[in-house]
Amino acid sequence: MKNVNLLISPSILAADFSDIVTALDEIRESGTDYVHVDVMDGMFVPNISFGPKFVKDMRKHSDLIFDVHLMIEEPERYIKQFADAGSDIITIHHEATRHTHKAISEIKALGLEAGIAINPGTSVSSISAILPFVDYVLVMSVNPGFGGQSFIEESANKVAELCELRDNEGYNYLINIDGGISEKTIKSVASAGVDMIVAGSAFFSSPDKKGFVENMKRLAEEAR
Ligand code: DX5
Ligand code: ZN
Fold first, then answer.
1. What does the pLDDT look like over 71-128, one tens digit per residue?
2. Is the pTM of the predicted complex or chain greater than 0.90?
3. Whether residue 30 has its Cβ less than 6 Å from ligand 1
4. Does the annotation mark 178 as catalytic?
5. What is the residue extent of each domain of the chain?
6. Cα separation of 89 and 112, whole Å?
7. How many A from CA of 26 to the centre of ligand 2?
C-alpha cells in the first residue's frame, strides 16, 4: 500500500546553526510536521555536526516531530541521551552497530519510534531480519556526511523493493529517503512508493518554503 500524502522532513543540517530558532519557525510555517536532525560523529561519517544538547535546546523552541538520524558509531551508546533530549524518532545505521535489534528495541522501550538506515552500498536484503521491528526504513540516496550531494538514482530501486516486501510480509514501516531530494528527483522515488522524504539544501535554498512543500507533494501525487 502506498501512502497518498507525502511526508516531508526538512533537514536542519542545511540551516544556519547560529539562528536555529528562525530555521525551526520556517519549517513550522512551511506546513510540515517533521524536522530531520542529522547527528554526525566524525567517525561513521567524515563530518561532525552536534550532540544531544543542541537537540534539547531546539526542543525548547519547537513542537515539531524530531526525526533524529544518528550517523554515529555504536549508536546504542547515545540512544538514552537523545531520547531524553526530546527526540520523537531515532534512526540508527545498520552499518554502525553489530546489535541493530538490541538498539531498535531500546529506542522502542523508551517510547520512541525507531528507524533503520542503510548506506548506498548496503542492500535491502541485509536488513531483512530487522524489518518486522522498525517504524521507518531510511534509504540513503547519497553517502552520508554532507548536504548538497547528487542523488544516486539506483536508490529508487531499494524503495520499490521495500514496498514490495512490506506488502508481501505485512510489515508496517514507512519508507523514508535521504540525500539529494528535490523537485528534480522526487518523481522517481514517489513512483517507487516512498512515504517520506528528507530535504536539506532544496528546502532551505527555496525562498518560498511553503510553496516548495506544496510543490513536492503535488509532484509526488502526480508520480504515484
Ligand atoms: C546526509 C544527511 C542528509 C542531508 C540531506 O548525510 O543525512 O540528511 O542533510 O541534505 P540534502 O537534501 O541537501 O541532500
Ligand atoms: Zn539525514
1. 999 999 999 999 999 999 999 999 999 999 999 999 999 999 999 999 999 999 999 9
2. yes
3. no
4. yes
5. 7-223
6. 6
7. 19
